[in-house]
Design brief:
Blueprint lengths: L5 E5 L3 H12 L2 E7 L3 E7 L4 E7 L2 H4 L11 E5 L3 H10 L6 H7 L13 E4 L5 E5 L11
Parallel strand pairs: 1-4, 5-7
Antiparallel strand pairs: 2-3, 3-4, 6-7
């Protein structure tokens, strides 16, 4: 079965975005990009590649109209939820309280949902942080 192995985030500040994901989630830089098409970084957790891209021309960036649909959120399963929450706060990332409230996520009590708490990323992307993971991430049996 195909596996998710790549996520790309378009940004106007590739260095800031790569620093955020490296410092908060421990992703490692595996490549740096410098071309006429895009500048940025390839980060990895050893399983999934995350491209942080500052596109340099419209042709490679593709159509970007007001109705463009891109990445909605990225989910990270973490070993120590409280540590990651502190690191997110230090990086200036805040919980998305309105969304968390609507989902009853991150509101205390047993943590059995797929998502614990939603936070904002440096480019407005939504980040799920979970201590319990998601269905289907431990095999399919």
């Amino acid at each position: 079965m195909p596996q998710i192995k790549h996520i790309a985030i378009a940004t106007n500040d590739a260095e800031k975005t790569a620093k955020f994901y490296s410092e908060v989630f421990g992703l490692r830089e595996v490549a740096k990009l410098e071309s006429e098409n895009a500048k940025g970084y390839m980060l990895s957790d050893g399983n999934v590649n995350m491209a942080i891209l500052d596109f340099q021309n419209d042709a490679v960036a593709g159509e970007r109209g007001k109705d463009w649909e891109g990445i909605h959120h990225i989910g990270f399963e973490v070993e120590n939820l409280e540590d990651i929450e502190r690191r997110l706060a230090s990086a200036g990332s805040n919980p998305m309280d309105d969304v968390n409230h609507a989902l009853h996520a991150g509101m205390g009590g047993p943590r059995t949902q797929n998502v614990e708490t939603k936070y904002s990323g440096p480019n407005g992307e939504m980040i799920d942080v979970s201590g319990t993971g998601w269905v289907g991430t431990r095999g399919l049996d």
